[in-house]
């Protein structure tokens, strides 16, 4: 009876051969092999075992993305085992959709300036990518897949190309994002798009992490590129953008992901309550 680890070795080059992020695949599969599930017979893996693995990752402060991607890889390995007769019963399907730990680091203006300066020391294009992420609030994958036809001097269109990006949306560009595009157009006009060179996110991380360390934030685990998206939406909410427009701006299919910003809108909408609703005065 084959173990999960042995099945992972068999299917690595078959099931995941066309995956764009091969480094990420290796990391998740190696982590599964090292887990307590690794030496377990693949026939014996149950939904309870998978949920226990999820609990371990949550307790280890793993990000939502890590949990979801690792469980997804495990589901595919178990599916491979069943299809090849290495497992006699259909594999349990465990879909992790709840949010375990949100990355809610907000990049303050002084951190933004210091960090951009450090990134620029490692290559000005990295600073431009940082500014564009921060002032559009777009997902990293959306930005790095942009082609020049989708970008003008004043706006950008993100196409509906993933499950998360259910509909195409066009956003106006704030001056820092527009300036980043202008500089990238001058340097990379012959490339398919302004940030195609950063599609391998590890390439960007190799500059991000040293710059983060240089400004004294090495131990801030939530200061990752996704913090740009959170910061942009937080700033827009704080400045008065409605929930519906925030949903359109961020490209969310539902309002669920916006719940963590709702307190900003509620605070703004209720700020004049003491003037409008005089409950502390006796009736005339």
How would you summarize what this structure contains?
This protein has helices at residues 4-15, 22-34, 47-59, 64-83, 109-121, 124-136, 140-144, 175-188, 201-214, 226-238, 243-250, 262-269, 273-276; strands at residues 155-158, 169-172. It contains 13 helices and two strands; from the N terminus they run H-H-H-H-H-H-H-E-E-H-H-H-H-H-H.
Please write out the topology.
Elements: H1 4-15, H2 22-34, H3 47-59, H4 64-83, H5 109-121, H6 124-136, H7 140-144, E1 155-158, E2 169-172, H8 175-188, H9 201-214, H10 226-238, H11 243-250, H12 262-269, H13 273-276
Antiparallel strand pairs: 1-2
Helix pairs in contact: 1-2, 1-4, 2-4, 3-4, 5-6, 5-9, 6-8, 6-10, 10-11
What this model shows, in words?
The chain is built from 13 helices and 2 strands; from the N terminus they run H-H-H-H-H-H-H-E-E-H-H-H-H-H-H. By secondary structure, it is mainly alpha-helical. The chain folds into 2 domains: 4-83, Orthogonal Bundle (DNA polymerase, domain 1), CATH 1.10.150; 109-269, Intergrase catalytic core (hpI Integrase, Chain A, Orthogonal Bundle). Strands 1-2 form a two-stranded antiparallel sheet. Helix 1 (4-15) crosses helix 4 (64-83) and helix 3 (47-59) runs antiparallel to helix 4 (64-83). The radius of gyration is 23 Å and the shape is globular.
């Amino acid at each position: 009876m084959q173990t999960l680890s042995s099945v992972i070795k068999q299917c690595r080059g078959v099931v995941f051969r066309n995956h764009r992020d091969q480094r990420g695949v290796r990391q998740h599969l190696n982590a599964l092999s090292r887990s307590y599930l690794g030496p377990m017979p693949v026939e014996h893996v149950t939904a309870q075992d998978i949920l226990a693995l999820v609990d371990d990752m949550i307790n280890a402060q793993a990000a939502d993305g890590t949990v979801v991607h690792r469980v997804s890889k495990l589901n595919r390995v178990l599916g491979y085992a069943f299809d090849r007769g290495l497992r006699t019963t259909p594999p349990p399907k465990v879909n992790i959709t709840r949010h375990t730990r949100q990355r809610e680091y907000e990049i303050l203006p002084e951190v933004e300036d210091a960090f951009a300066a450090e990134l620029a020391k490692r290559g000005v294009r990295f600073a431009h990518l940082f500014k564009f992420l921060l002032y559009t609030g777009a997902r990293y994958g959306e930005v790095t897949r942009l082609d020049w036809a989708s970008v003008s001097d004043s706006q950008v269109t993100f196409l509906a190309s993933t499950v998360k990006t259910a509909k195409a949306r066009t956003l106006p560009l704030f001056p820092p994002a527009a300036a980043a595009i202008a500089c990238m157009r001058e340097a990379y006009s012959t490339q398919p798009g302004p940030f195609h060179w950063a599609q391998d996110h590890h390439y960007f991380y190799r500059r991000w992490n040293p710059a983060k360390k240089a400004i004294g934030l090495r131990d801030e685990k939530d200061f990752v590129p996704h913090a740009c998206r959170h910061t942009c939406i937080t700033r827009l909410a704080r400045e008065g953008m409605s929930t519906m427009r925030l949903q359109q701006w961020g490209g969310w299919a539902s309002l669920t992901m916006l719940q963590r910003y709702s307190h900003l809108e509620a605070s703004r909408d209720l700020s004049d309550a003491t003037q409008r609703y005089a409950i502390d005065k006796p009736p005339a």
